[in-house]
Amino acid sequence: MVLAIVSLASYSQGIMGKWLTESGDAKVEIYEAGGKINGKIIWLQKGPETTDSHNTDEKLRSRKLMGVNILSGLTKKSEKWEGGRIYNPKNGKNYKCSIWLDGDKLKVRGYIGFLYETQTWKRAQ
């Protein structure tokens, strides 16, 4: 039992850390909190003063994007982390989400019903 927990923890560490988004305009730090995997914005090409101007909630449009969780609530299921949400600050919408490792890359998939889009994120410094 202890060996299983240690190996699961080691495997989870693979997704933890800093990732550069596919477009290269943001870095996201993936971390665990309360047994769930989350990811927050830690760098933006446009600078730290960039606001959440496309948020569908008008009250949130003036908040800074730095520190905003764009990945939330993911849990480990087989080879993927699923059951969470991803926030897209480019259109202000939330989607169902799953992530998984593909070698040294991270696949990030957002869903609307049966439609989906997958991005490939690279490990960042």
Description:
- This protein has 125 residues and is mainly beta.
- It has one helix and eight strands, in the order αββββββββ.
- An eight-stranded antiparallel beta barrel has the order 1-2-3-4-5-6-7-8.
- A hairpin with a 2-residue loop joins β2 and β3.
- It is globular.
- Residues 1-12 have low confidence and may be disordered.
Taking the alpha carbons of the first and last residues, their distance comes to 34 Å
Secondary-structure element order, N to C = HEEEEEEEE
Strand order within the widest sheet?
1-2-3-4-5-6-7-8
Percent helix:
under 10%
- Determine the mean pLDDT: 91
Q: What overall form do the CA principal axes indicate?
A: globular
Strand content: over 45%
Oligomer: single chain
Which radius of gyration do the C-alpha atoms yield?
Answer: 15 Å
| Low-confidence segments | 1-12
Put simply, the count of helices is: 1
What class do helices, strands and sheet pairing give? mainly beta
For the sheet with most strands, the description reads: 8 strands, antiparallel, barrel
What's the total count of β strands?
8
What's a concise summary of this model?
With 125 residues, the chain is mainly beta.
Task: Please write out the topology.
Blueprint lengths: L1 H12 L3 E4 L5 E8 L2 E9 L24 E9 L2 E9 L4 E10 L2 E8 L2 E9 L2
Antiparallel strand pairs: 1-2, 1-8, 2-3, 3-4, 4-5, 5-6, 6-7, 7-8
